[in-house]
């Protein structure tokens, strides 16, 4: 060992009250072999790291005992590398560690405690050591992990550098252990990877788990348990065992799978439609019962001799109108849904089945009353009798969500990952083994056959569980203390994302993310990835992932890697906020990367805040553009100011939310899009424009409770469709929640993540609507129940099939208009700067009117659309006809005409839009699209000044 080097200054002796008698927190950070970051306090004079493979280190009234000692020397300069890598620790003392490589590796396999002593050798600080930095230094592994098929052999590799031993247990289909195997490489492998090798014929399709002995800081002991493979590619029911599977086996591929090669659109040409596998078909009577809520429901696409379901007919119509991508909420293995249907409670079961699992007085009374009648039938009668009944949600949230029906049904959004590389088994006809692999591929292929690419929602920012006792913990059982992020002082697990936060700043977590995404792209031909809470990942990880995906080719992989689109939630919050630990993948950091971020700026301006948060009063959104307070168009200062502010946000959003976009704001200042922290993108594809997704109330629900109560249903539909028009006609990437085009409701549910099929399923026959299906579950809705009752019981909210069908037709027309001209889908910021111009801006604007011109005239340069000189879209958010004069020097609107799709469309109101010279008269709640056809070559049109 290296000699101990003392500090020059000598701390004073600790008093009796300063001597420690326990190990507290985890504030020491072993960041490299020779560096420990730790502020041990004012009495710290001599420092050491103690390690013990037997977990026998004790700090008590008798002093410090147990383990071996690594000397920690004097305080040294951190150096730029450590400061850059650990900015959140940069103000803390860095100390020299005296240990060679073998000692370091031995120490990492057991309990680790840092101890500080005063000059009289009294312990004055003792804390657990966090060690991911030194793990990355010695054990980063860049090779394949999991089951690897090579000719007649299978090699299985597990990265577990802190494990004291690893064995492999192999099981048959009956879960009986067949054999236990030792690793074929060193018992303490140099790279931390344990190798097992077997005969393909003997191992293929068998089941396995690892038998591990490893120290875990949660219970401060060496644990011995079995755990599944973090790199599993197949699982048994409820993820109890991993399975040896070769994803290249022919019996796991649909017919012609190898011929499926998709040339993906440029990201600016994408539109995204967010769905949930179960929501899509659970109420679709045209899908065989055994396929409802499953991957195979998507195979009823009408291609060849396959029947066409209502849901797939709906998607085909959207695809024909221009929709390009179906976004699916997580389809990887999740922890919260029971796959064994004998242990579940679903709507088709008898009502009294609920009380077979739960004993609670309120539930027991309902079970006695309704007996063997189906839950669905009982719920239907309850809602028919009272659209705001509390009796439907009671099984979900009484006596508590995790004790009620929500814990036992087959529904969950799926943001609770268990195994990252395996399809979720509850969506397969058989959750045991390989059916989930084949059927997910059938789904992808069937969607491709109707022209839709597939997005999967990925959740790498947290795991569902951790700790040695949890069955749902995988990563934390294999390498405790490494894959997750912990408080830098207390060592408590960070849970700002909802659950156990992962740490992609650690090398092997970054590798897992990249390996996993590439697996989905290559083996399942997934075309896009949406990252949950992407801002909790480093920007560098997302950029590297994009580079790795770009290496996939149509020829070799059947995947157009260059145009695989990555987007996510770049929210800035939690322990990583404001780039505290690393440069985050947040909105304002990602400009120029080509990676998309959800645009909440124009979202809030269009739809306003959530009803459950703010009620009918709008707060900031009192100026919400579509339905401001009744006197918002008056000269009352507060209302008018909010309305004009919302208008600026919408304009920037429709200009691709570019931070560089120049415009005249409401104060008369010439600013760019980044003013007031609105625009964050540097290219249009980096802004995902939306007003509706699975989170929060649906657009329809959130809108209805804010509109005047005496407004008729036809006008309500017009407001809803005007909301969508802002998204469909703007630059950037449009994003919609499935069913927004048919006025989707969840009966005002604020957070339907575990609310079951009753509130979530979509009926594409349009014979039913989810408004007024009972009060939504208590967990995020109860504070607004009194107001919800009034709305849900109000007979004015009568959503008929004809209105849903009209909305669907209008939505498709908006899509068709978007795809009628590339001018709606500009690819470069410079094109947007020059071609997109807003009129009626500044302090003298007519509030409630947004007028956007997109030029293909001579001033714009080379034409993009050989048919048009330009487009003018005018949005009237008022509930009255409005006439506006759009005069600009040198601009003539001669030749402008209503877009042919609107002129021949289903909306008679928009056809009343008129132009008289420079004056335009627009009906209420209308978006009118005017086009100027080219005549004898490229003509003139307005360009941005």
Automatic annotation (TrEMBL):
Residues 334-394 form the Pullulanase Ins domain. CDD domains: AmyAc_Pullulanase_LD-like (cd11341), E_set_Pullulanase (cd02860). Residues 26-137 form the Pullulanase N2 domain. Gene3D superfamilies: Glycosidases (3.20.20.80), Golgi alpha-mannosidase II (2.60.40.1180), Immunoglobulins (2.60.40.10), Rab geranylgeranyltransferase alpha-subunit, insert domain (2.60.40.1130). GO terms for molecular function: pullulanase activity. One of its GO terms (biological process) is carbohydrate metabolic process. Coiled coil: none annotated. Residues 768-932 form the Alpha-1,6-glucosidases pullulanase-type C-terminal domain. InterPro entries: GH, Glyco_hydro_13_N, Glyco_hydro_b, Ig-like_fold, Ig_E-set, Pullul_strch, Pullul_strch_C, Pullulanase_Ins. It comes from the Bacteria. Residues 144-232 form the Glycoside hydrolase family 13 N-terminal domain. Belongs to the glycosyl hydrolase 13 family. This is Pullulanase-type alpha-1,6-glucosidase. It comes from Natronogracilivirga saccharolytica.
């Amino acid at each position: 060992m290296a000699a101990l080097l003392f500090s020059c200054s000598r701390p004073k002796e600790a008093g009796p009250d300063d001597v420690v008698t326990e190990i507290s927190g985890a504030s020491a950070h072993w960041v490299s072999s020779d560096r420990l970051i730790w502020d041990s306090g004012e009495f710290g004079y001599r420092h050491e790291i103690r390690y013990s493979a037997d977990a026998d280190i004790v700090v008590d009234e008798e002093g410090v005992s147990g383990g071996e000692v690594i000397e920690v020397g004097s305080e040294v300069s951190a150096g730029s590398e450590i400061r850059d890598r650990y900015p959140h620790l940069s103000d803390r003392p860095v100390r020299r560690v005296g240990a060679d490589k073998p000692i370091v590796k031995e120490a990492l396999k057991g309990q680790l405690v840092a101890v500080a002593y005063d000059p009289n050798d009294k312990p004055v600080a003792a804390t657990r050591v966090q060690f991911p930095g030194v793990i990355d230094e010695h054990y980063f592994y860049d090779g394949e992990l999991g089951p690897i098929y090579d000719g007649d052999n299978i090699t299985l590799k597990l990265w577990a550098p802190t494990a004291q031993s690893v064995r492999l247990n192999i099981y048959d289909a009956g879960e009986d252990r067949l054999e236990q195997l030792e690793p074929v490489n060193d018992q303490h492998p140099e790279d931390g990877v344990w190798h097992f090798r077997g005969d393909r014929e003997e191992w293929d399709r068998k089941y396995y788990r690892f038998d591990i002995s490893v120290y875990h800081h949660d219970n401060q002991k060496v644990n011995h348990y079995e755990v599944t493979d973090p790199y599993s590619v197949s699982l048994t029911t409820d993820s109890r065992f991993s399975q040896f599977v070769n994803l290249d086996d022919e019996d796991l591929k649909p017919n012609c799978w190898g011929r499926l090669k998709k040339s993906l659109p440029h990201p600016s040409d994408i539109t995204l439609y967010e769905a949930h596998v179960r929501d899509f078909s659970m109420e679709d009577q045209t899908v065989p019962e055994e396929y409802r809520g499953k991957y195979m429901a998507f195979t009823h696409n009408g291609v060849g001799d396959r029947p066409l379901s209502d849901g797939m007919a709906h998607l085909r119509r959207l695809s024909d109108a221009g929709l390009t991508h179906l976004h699916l909420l997580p389809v990887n293995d999740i922890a919260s849904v029971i796959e064994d249907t004998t242990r579940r409670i679903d709507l088709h079961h008898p009502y009294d089945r609920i009380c077979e699992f739960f004993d609670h007085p309120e539930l027991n009374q309902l079970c006695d009353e309704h007996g063997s009648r189906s839950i669905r039938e009982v719920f239907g009668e309850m809602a028919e009798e009272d659209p705001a009944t509390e009796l439907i949600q009671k099984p979900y949230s009484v006596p508590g969500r995790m004790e009620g029906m929500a814990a036992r049904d087959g529904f969950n959004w799926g943001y609770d990952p268990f195994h990252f590389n395996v399809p979720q088994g509850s969506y397969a006809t058989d959750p045991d083994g390989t059916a989930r692999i084949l059927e997910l591929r059938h789904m992808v292929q069937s969607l491709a056959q109707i022209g839709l690419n597939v997005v999967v929602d990925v959740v790498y920012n947290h795991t569902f569980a951790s700790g040695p006792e949890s069955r749902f913990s995988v990563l934390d059982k294999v390498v405790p203390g490494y894959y997750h992020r912990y408080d830098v002082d207390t060592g408590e697990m960070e849970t700002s994302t909802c659950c156990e936060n992962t740490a992609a700043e650690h090398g092997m977590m970054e590798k897992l993310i990249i390996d996993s995404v590439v697996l989905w792209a290559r083996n399942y031909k997934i075309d896009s990835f949406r990252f949950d809470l992407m801002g909790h990942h480093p920007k560098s990880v997302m950029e590297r992932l994009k580079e790795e995906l770009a290496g996939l080719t149509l020829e070799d992989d059947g995947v157009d890697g260059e145009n695989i689109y990555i987007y996510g939630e770049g929210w800035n919050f939690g322990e990583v906020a404001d780039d505290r630990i690393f440069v985050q993948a947040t909105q304002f950091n990602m400009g120029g990367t080509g990676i998309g971020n959800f645009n909440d700026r124009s979202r809030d301006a269009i739809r306003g805040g959530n009803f459950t948060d703010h009620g009918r009063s709008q707060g900031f959104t009192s100026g919400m553009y579509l339905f401001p307070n009744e006197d918002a168009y008056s000269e009352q200062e507060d209302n008018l100011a909010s309305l004009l502010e919302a208008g600026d946000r919408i304009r920037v959003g429709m200009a691709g939310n570019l931070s560089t976009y120049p415009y005249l704001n409401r104060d008369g200042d010439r600013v760019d899009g980044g003013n007031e922290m609105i625009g964050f993108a540097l290219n249009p594809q980096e802004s995902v424009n939306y007003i509706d997704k699975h989170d929060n109330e649906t657009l329809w629900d959130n809108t209805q409770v804010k509109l005047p109560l005496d407004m008729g249903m036809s006008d309500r539909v017009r407001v809803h469709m005007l909301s969508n028009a802002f998204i469909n006609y703007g630059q950037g990437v449009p994003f919609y929640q499935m069913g927004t085009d048919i006025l989707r409701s969840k009966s005002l549910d604020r957070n339907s993540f575990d609310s079951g099929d009753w509130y979530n399923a979509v009926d594409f026959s349009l014979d039913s609507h989810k408004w007024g299906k009972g009060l939504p579950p208590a967990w995020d809705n109860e504070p607004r129940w009194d107001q919800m009752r009034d709305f849900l019981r109000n007979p004015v909210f009568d959503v008929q099939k004809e209105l849903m069908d009209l909305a669907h037709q209008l939505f498709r027309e908006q899509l068709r208009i978007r795809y009628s001209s590339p001018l709606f889908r500009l690819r470069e910021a410079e094109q947007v700067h020059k071609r997109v111009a807003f009129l009626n801006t500044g302090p003298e604007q007519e509030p409630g009117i947004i007028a956007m011109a997109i030029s293909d005239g001579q001033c714009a340069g080379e034409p993009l659309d050989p048919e048009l000189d330009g487009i003018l879209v005018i949005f009237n958010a008022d509930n009255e006809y409005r006439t506006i004069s759009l005069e600009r020097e040198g601009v003539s609107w001669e030749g402008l005409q209503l877009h042919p799709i609107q002129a021949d469309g289903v909306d008679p109101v928009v056809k009343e839009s008129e132009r008289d010279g420079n004056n335009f008269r627009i009906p209420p709640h209308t978006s009118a699209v005017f086009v100027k056809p080219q005549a004898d070559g490229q003509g003139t049109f307005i360009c941005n000044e």
